[in-house]
Design goal:
Number of domains: 2
Strand order of the largest sheet: 1-7-6-5-2-3-4
Radius of gyration: 24 Å
Order of helices and strands: HEHEHEHEEEEHHEHEHHEHEHEE
Number of strands: 13
CATH topology of the largest domain: Endonuclease, Chain A
Distance between the termini: 14 Å
CATH class of the largest domain: Alpha Beta
Strand content: 15-25%
Largest sheet: 7 strands, mixed
Structural class: alpha/beta
Length: 366
């Protein structure tokens, strides 16, 4: 099960720690065969957190193994006091992937292999103080700052600074955290429009790409599908892949996607002639635009609302990636009610989803 590394403060009252709630949910979500998370300790002391940080850094520094360390600095200014320390780590061959608010200056670049610039959030784990590494010893430390009034500002022991967190050697925690942080890195720093980069990201040959669209005139929708289909078609041409158009507008609580005269013809993969007989004229035009550049394309009519159904359908048809208009990250109330929102995915790691943004870029969804 995928775990969402974000505090949920909406359910917390004055007597309940949102960090402790997250830890309890983490234990429930990441268990395997009913075994609880192991090698775990909850921490309230900032002094102990700093001591754990130095121990992790020291162990990696004296190790002869090739290692990488994911570090949360919260903001680029926090790196100022750690420059010499992390220059030493990088000089020893340690790969440092750091996360924080702000853009590094030249003085910050030597102590880092990669800086991942992120927007400010008091709830997301990538905005916290953390160190995660798989070698020489698997370890994950996260210190959640709970002093929101001065979040990511000032020094560790300034009055009012408060952290709650944990340290764990459980590989399920470590792997889940690393997957999340890698996804943040990809979404913030990479627009994988290049076929070779995309293949490297997905980790296999891409033979089928599904595009979420509508059988409606483009000017009636809150997004434009022409540019999305054009760019995806260009990508498919380079990859020698086929396109499946997924008509989300076909879903209804009251009627089936096909007319009463069409019987079961609407089910399964459809060609241009099928769409013509079913009266799906806008969808058929999209398919013809694809076929005009010598690509193999089919269409599917959604029989249910929701992105969970899109994910299920994509897996059933051996789709390798799904392209979604940016609108579905923050859709209207009606779409949210019926589940037409990418955040509703229950296991986004089982199927790569890519957002097609308003600048005509593909962005990995996490």
């Amino acid at each position: 099960m995928t775990f969402k590394w974000q505090l949920d403060k909406s359910t917390s009252d004055k007597n309940t720690s949102s960090v402790r709630e997250l830890v309890l949910k983490m234990d429930e979500a990441l268990r395997e065969e009913g075994l609880p998370i192991e090698g775990f300790e909850f921490i309230h002391s900032s002094e102990k957190m700093l001591d754990i940080t130095r121990q992790i850094e020291n162990e990696i520094l004296i190790s002869n193994q090739a290692s990488s360390l994911y570090v949360g600095f919260q903001s680029v200014e926090k790196l100022d006091n750690e420059i010499e320390r992390y220059e030493e780590l990088v000089a020893s061959g340690i790969e440092i992937k750091a996360f924080g608010i702000g853009t590094p200056e030249n003085k910050h670049k030597n102590p880092l292999t990669t800086w991942v610039e992120i927007p400010k959030s008091v709830t997301l784990v990538e905005n916290q103080w953390f160190l995660v590494s798989e070698s020489p010893s698997p370890i994950a430390f996260v210190g959640w700052e709970v002093s929101e009034g001065q979040f990511a500002e000032g020094r560790l022991f300034d009055p009012g600074k408060m952290f709650e967190g944990f340290v764990s050697s459980d590989e399920r925690v470590i792997k889940s955290l690393l997957k999340h942080l890698d996804a943040v890195y990809l979404s913030q720093n990479h627009q994988p429009t290049d076929p070779d980069e995309l293949l490297s990201l997905i980790g296999k040959k891409v033979e089928k790409i599904m595009v979420v669209t509508h059988d409606k005139p483009e000017d009636t929708l809150p997004f434009q599908y022409t540019s999305m289909i054009k760019k995806t078609s260009e990508l498919c041409h380079k990859l020698d892949a086929e396109i499946i158009l997924y008509d989300l507008s076909a879903a209804s609580f009251f009627v089936e996607p096909g007319s009463s005269q069409s019987g079961q013809r609407w089910k399964g993969l459809l060609n241009s002639r099928d769409l013509e007989l079913l009266g799906r004229n806008n969808l058929n035009k999209q398919m013809n635009d694809i076929n005009n550049i010598n690509l193999n394309s089919k269409a599917l009519l959604a029989n249910k609302h929701g992105f969970i159904n899109i994910q299920k359908t994509a897996l059933e048809h051996n789709v390798d990636m799904v392209v979604v208009p940016e609108y579905y990250e923050h859709p209207s109330l009606i779409d949210r009610i019926v589940g037409n929102q990418v955040s509703k995915l229950d296991d986004y790691e089982s199927m790569p989803f890519f957002i097609f943004d308003n600048e005509c870029n593909f962005r990995y969804f996490q």
